């Protein structure tokens, strides 16, 4: 039987009528194959339970179980085969019962060939349409099942990072669909961060593998204690973990985190910091626990990494300390000028300890770090030296490490390296007389003089060309020249414009236009150029052209 043929069961107590139906039409040509016959309702019901039929053609009047009783039994058994009733009696009650049982057609004996073929064509189209819809639905269901892990991850991320907008009933239904426990004893969130991951591994693929391994260990540790755990990728390389807990307290959760951390240290030889939020009663409060985990993770900078930091309400006061910058520039400059290495190490230790004592945040610590770099830069330039290429840029190995500093201990080690190696190496070079402008500022001035006619010239482009940080160039330019970079650029452009106007011959002035002058010195907008020109020289360029 061809695979696309629909299977038919004929039920009639008259053998000769069954044979008549078999030979009345060309069943295969219509896409059907008669695969079974039954002479009564009971026999037909047994066949319908054991085999699948797409269409059943049944006589209504049969001894024992009638055709109507047979089809009613089919419907009770949820057997969805299409049905055509045939009968020798044109009785309204039969027709009404057939309709009530969901029969597709009701034909009278003797069966008309054209009428039967028409009925079969309609039924085949209906069945094929149902099959197509069923296959489409099955495909969609399969796709949904395959996508469910990703959808579950998005659902959990949404409810950890944000307060849910849905009501409790909708949230319960969503949790049920994503197979997330909706009636756990408690809910919590934690963040696992692999310490110095970006510094140790340059390739993102390597970092992803380590995060994957840590997620698996955390998940296995939690699930072994009956905790529902979903570890997903969070922001900035962090691992966000959603937990649905059985009946135990926060101390038990901290213990499990410590167990996972210890296992990772021992087996994988990497350090991980765990930040743990409080346990809440409702799934809708998971975002509160995640916010608390984010909050305590900030204090990894002061406390150090490779530990479990659990949220406690009394930590809320940490951000309230009044912090004064722990750097006396005159003392640092004196130590650096005298090349006092011991004194420098003492100052670095004191500065970092001050950060710890005041529970300063990472932002303040980075501000202190930049102040120390400024001191080192000033001493190098004071001695007539020059700053190394890519100063304060990530392409410089040491400054790349600076942007990955995660703890005060790491900051202290970095400062020791910065002053002990980089600054010391520059200071040990033979000194040269220091001119009016440092080498960096001279290069910046040269860049402006060469490119002033290009309207796209910016501080960022100049700093990139020289190989220094834009903020540092801006600071040094103002310090050395007394005016800002943009002011110097504007003054040079306007001076060049005045020279163009003065040097032009009387005949040339006639054909020269303000727009020509403005564009030749880097101003795209001639009206803005005219305002700047008048502000500097007290006269608009058009007046000079007319004189």
From TrEMBL:
GO biological process: phosphorelay signal transduction system
Main subcellular location of this protein, as a coarse class: cytoplasm
Residues annotated as domain Response regulatory: 7-124
Domain HTH araC/xylS-type residues, every copy: 442-547
An example Gene Ontology molecular-function term: sequence-specific DNA binding
GO cellular component: cytoplasm
Subcellular location: Cytoplasm
Listed InterPro entries: CdaR_GGDEF, CheY-like_superfamily, Homeodomain-like_sf, HptR, HTH_AraC, Sig_transdc_resp-reg_receiver, Tscrpt_reg_AraC-type_HTH
Protein name per its UniProtKB record: Response regulator
